[in-house]
């Protein structure tokens, strides 16, 4: 097979710097999310002059030097050994470069190459900036101007930062204000487990006319509470999205099979491309790999969506990545189109 004729000759380490367009504030469980950050990438060089690179998705094994690319990745399934998960993205990129195929084609090309993206950066601006709810609306306006047509609002202010009743009231006020300002946009809400089931159902009753697209991580995963929430949502189109933080996979798959989770969210990088390739055929609902943290993760999740299908929307992390040419990805009116270039179609300067 073609990949067997290419041998890893050198493993190079580097970093990339992500920059958000503004400081991203608190959510229900964590303080400020800052302005971006520096992350490790790994670059694989072959004896045949091919290069593949990607975010380091875990510890990077050096002992791949001298091994053939065909031993390390099977284009049909992903990396061949658990110890290679740190190289998941670099190896998919490298296989694509060698085979002259985009990653979404390696993954099966089961989805559309144009994917709706939602804005994942609407945090608790009202708690840090002057102007209260208007501060949140200002962030929505900035991201709308940047092309977003769907907002995910962080809620759960009463979990840690405000008195419970006042925080819940502010969540309702923010949700209603964004809906009023953007009658046609999709609105998603993410509580980062900052409610209990009773409190969350009260929140939902207060925003019942806001046509929420999905509710994410409303409370700590619990099969009975999720069944209760699903029952409450009967007759509405609102989806339940779960499974981002510390996913306990098998119970989540079971809850999804019972119909009480509509969208599974395991992280695109820490859960990984190869794991998603294994799991996607087993899940009874839709999926949307969590991408928060790095604009690059949105591009990876979009490739996964185009490749594996079954992903209705992808989390957008607004911002830029220094030294990475992302211009082959097209962004228009809330949709991202992945390129038909080999690998991820991303050049590292
Ligand atoms: O869905 C999301 O984007 C998140 O929940 C991101 C969180 O806000 C962030 O604190 C994190 O990554 O845990």
Structural description of this entry:
It catalyses: D-glucarate = 5-dehydro-4-deoxy-D-glucarate + H2O. Residues 133-236 form the Mandelate racemase/muconate lactonizing enzyme C-terminal domain. 30% of the residues lie in helices and 25% in strands. The radius of gyration is 21 Å and the shape is globular. By secondary structure, the chain is of the alpha/beta class. The protein folds into 2 domains: 2-100, Enolase-like, N-terminal domain (Enolase-like, domain 1); 114-348, Enolase-like C-terminal domain (TIM Barrel, Alpha-Beta Barrel), CATH 3.20.20.120. The structure holds 2,3-dihydroxy-5-OXO-hexanedioate. 2,3-dihydroxy-5-OXO-hexanedioate binds next to loops.
CATH topology annotation of the largest domain: TIM Barrel
Helix content: 25-40%
Largest sheet entry: 10 strands, mixed
Q: Mean pLDDT across all residues, rounded?
A: 97
Q: Are any ligands bound, and if so which?
A: 2,3-dihydroxy-5-OXO-hexanedioate
Just give the CATH class of the largest domain: Alpha Beta
Strand content: 15-25%
Q: Give the CATH superfamily of the largest domain.
A: Enolase-like C-terminal domain
Helices and strands, in N-to-C order? Answer: EEEHEEHHEHHEHEHEHEHEHEHEEEEEE
> Count of DSSP E strands?
18
Shape: globular
The number of domains:
2
Low confidence ranges? none
- Structural class, by secondary structure, is alpha/beta
Please compute the radius of gyration using only Cα atoms.
Answer: 21 Å
Corresponding CATH architecture of the largest domain? Alpha-Beta Barrel
Distance between the termini: 30 Å
Put simply, the count of helices is 11
């Amino acid at each position: 097979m073609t990949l067997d004729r290419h041998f890893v000759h050198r493993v190079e380490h580097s970093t990339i710097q992500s920059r958000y367009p503004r400081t991203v504030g608190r959510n229900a469980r964590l303080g400020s999310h800052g302005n971006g950050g520096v992350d490790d990438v790994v670059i694989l060089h072959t004896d045949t002059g091919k290069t593949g690179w990607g975010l380091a998705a875990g510890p990077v094994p050096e002992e791949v030097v001298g091994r053939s690319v065909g031993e390390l990745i099977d284009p049909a399934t992903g990396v061949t050994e658990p110890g290679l998960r740190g190289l998941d993205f670099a190896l998919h990129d490298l296989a694509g470069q060698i085979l002259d195929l985009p990653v979404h084609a390696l993954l099966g090309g089961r989805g559309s190459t144009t994917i709706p993206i939602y804005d994942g950066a609407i945090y608790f601006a009202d708690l840090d900036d002057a102007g209260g709810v208007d501060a949140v609306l200002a962030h929505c306006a900035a991201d709308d101007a940047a092309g977003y047509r769907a907002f995910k609002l962080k809620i759960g202010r009463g979990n840690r930062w405000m008195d419970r009743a006042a925080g819940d009231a502010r969540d309702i006020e923010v949700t209603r204000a964004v809906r009023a300002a953007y009658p046609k946009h999709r609105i998603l809400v993410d509580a980062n487990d900052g409610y209990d089931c009773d409190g969350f159902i009260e929140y939902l009753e207060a925003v019942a006319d806001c046509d929420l697209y999905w509710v994410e991580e409303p409370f700590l995963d619990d099969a009975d509470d999720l069944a209760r929430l699903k029952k409450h949502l009967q007759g509405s189109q609102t989806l339940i999205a779960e499974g981002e933080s510390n996913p306990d996979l098998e119970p989540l798959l079971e809850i999804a099979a019972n119909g009480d989770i509509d969208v599974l969210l395991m992280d695109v990088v820490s859960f990984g491309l190869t794991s998603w390739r294994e799991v996607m055929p087993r899940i009874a609902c839709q999926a949307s790999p969590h991408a928060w943290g790095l604009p690059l993760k949105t591009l990876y999740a979009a490739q996964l969506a185009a490749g594996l299908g079954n992903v209705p929307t992808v989390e957008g992390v607004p911002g830029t990545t220094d030294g990475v040419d992302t211009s082959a990805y097209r962004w228009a009116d809330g949709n991202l189109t992945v390129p038909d270039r080999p690998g991820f179609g991303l050049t590292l300067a």
